């Protein structure tokens, strides 16, 4: 007589859904980190373009002794890049918080880190970008 195979433990569907939700939450955190990194890159590149005039060359023959004179067009483009970086960081942070609120309503607070960790990095990027934008506008060289 053949013995029956031992019953496998039942799969709790709710646990599977919660694990998938945690993975989705981690993906949203990683996406915010990626957009924050992109925003930081735009801010740094915009600063370099603003201060060193990398986008357009300028004939310096008319201004003897001013080889590092800023190009007005490149300066404007640099400021726009910094502002775009700030906008990217702000949009990503706002979308992250909207998703986080919705996720916590449905599942509960994720226990592996504080609820504001990713958002704080994005907020610091926004503050640093805005401060740099003001500094670049005030000190025009």
The number of domains is: 1
Q: What is the typical, i.e. mean, pLDDT? A: 80
Structural class: mainly alpha
Strand content: under 5%
Distance between the termini: 93 Å
Described by strand count, sense and barrel closure, the largest sheet is: none
The best one-word shape is elongated
- Please give the count of helices: 3
Low-confidence stretches: none
- Oligomeric status: single chain
Fraction of residues in helix: 55-70%
| Structural Rg | 25 Å
What does this molecule look like?
With about 140 residues, the chain is mainly alpha-helical. It has one domain. Helix content is about 70%, strand content about 0%. The chain has 3 helices and no strands. The chain has helices spanning about 15-50, 70-105, 115-140. Helix 1 packs antiparallel against helix 2 (about 70-105). The termini are far apart.
Put the structure in a nutshell:
The protein has 141 residues and is an all-alpha fold. It has three helices and no strands. Helix 1 runs antiparallel to helix 2, helix 1 runs parallel beside helix 3 (117-138) and helix 2 (72-106) packs antiparallel against helix 3 (117-138).
